[in-house]
Amino acid sequence: QAFPLPSLPRKQPTVLVACGPAQNGAIGLVCARHLRSFDYEPTIFYPKRSPDPLHRDLTTQCEKMDIPFLSYLPTEVQLINDAYNAVVDAVLGAEGEVGTEGTEPCAAILATLRHIRIPIVSLDVPSGWRAGPGDSGDIRPAVLVSLAAPKEPSRRFQGRWHFLAGRFLPEELRRKFGIRGPPYPGSDCLVAL
C-alpha cells in the first residue's frame, strides 16, 4: 500500500529484504514471498541462516519461488540505492539490540542501512531501536509494519506510514492482554494507523 507498483521510481519493481537469524528474519522471508505474489521482485540477504525447521522451510519456499539470495551485502551503499526501490528491514525487530547474543551479522547490515537513501520498511520494530524509552536507533524507516500490536518503540516512529498487521491474533489473546486495534477493512490483513 505504501509503494504501489506504478509509483516505484525504477522500472523494475526490485526490493531488498534483509533478514536476521531469529524470528524477525523468518517474518522477512514470509514478506519476500508476499512481495513476489504481488509482482514485486524481492532479493533476500540472509547471512546467518537459522537451523530452525520453520526457517529452513521458509527459505526453501522462497528458493522455489525463484527469489534470489545475495551471498553478501554490498558495502558500497550507492549500489543498493541504484538497484532497489526499497529495503525491508527484517534484521532484529523486537528481538534485541545490536551487541546482544545472536546478533553478530546484524551490526554490519545496520551499518549499511544507516546510509542508504531509498525507503526502509521495518517489520515490527526498526532494527537497533531500544525496547524501552529513550532515543531510537540510527535506522529511519519510511514505513513501520507493527505485528499483532504496536510495540513501545513505535511511539518514536516518525516515518510516513505506520501499518498494523495483526488480524491473525486470536481473540483470547486480545482479551487477555487488553489489545484493542482498529477494525480491518474487508478482507485486508493490515490496517493503516
UniProtKB/TrEMBL annotation:
Q: Which residues form a coiled coil?
A: none
State the encoding gene. Answer: Yjefn3
**A GO molecular function held by the record:** NAD(P)HX epimerase activity
**Which superkingdom does the taxonomy of this entry point to?**
Eukaryota
Report one GO cellular component. Answer: mitochondrion
Which InterPro entries does this one have? YjeF_N_dom, YjeF_N_dom_sf, YJEFN_prot_NAXE-like
Pfam families to which the protein is assigned, alphabetical: YjeF_N
Q: Which PANTHER family match?
A: NAD(P)H-HYDRATE EPIMERASE, YJEF N-TERMINAL DOMAIN-CONTAINING PROTEIN 3
Its organism's taxonomic lineage begins at: Eukaryota, Metazoa, Chordata, Craniata, Vertebrata
Every copy of the YjeF N-terminal domain together lies at 1-181
Q: Mind telling me what this protein is named?
A: YJEN3 protein
